[in-house]
Amino acid sequence: MNSNYSHQNKKMLKFVPVFQAYITEMKYIISFILFFVAFPILSMGQSTTAFPKPAILNDLQATVPEQGTVQVIQESRIEDLLARHLELNRRSEGITGYRILIFKESYQNSREKAFEEKSRFVTNFPDLEVYYIYEQPESRLFVGDFRTKSEATRMKLEIEKYFKNAIVIETKINFPKLDKLEDKQ
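Given the sequence above, the corresponding structure tokens read:
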């Protein structure tokens, strides 16, 4: 009987490390599952952050003597979406648009050559912004902030008279200057 007991005890001793490894693995799996269930729930709480009411809505609903009254009827969620959209635009570094690449080189003196090309460009097109970008090992010159590809393509046709390899590139551009917008109207 004693040998039977020791045989069972040996089986039990072999089983214990396997069982402990199984329990440890289950702890990791359960922690992993809890993290991925709890994380979206916690982040949803952050997405309900209140943004300030857009001033444009107040301006629209203002009563102007001898001109009438405008009343905007909408769900509050639309106002929240508009406020969120305006806030995200305020935080953004720019908008998607187009620039024209006029210079791209990666040799040793490319920086000096880029600045020579920049002054040649500014001489011919003083109203367009020029952007020098150096990302190892390349120097590049971009020009303009165009909101549409057709606008950039029209300008590219003019630039190609001086810079044969000019190409239109979709990229982040600066917001249009307000004084330029007012001149167009």
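The mean pLDDT is 78. Try to locate this feature in the token string yourself.
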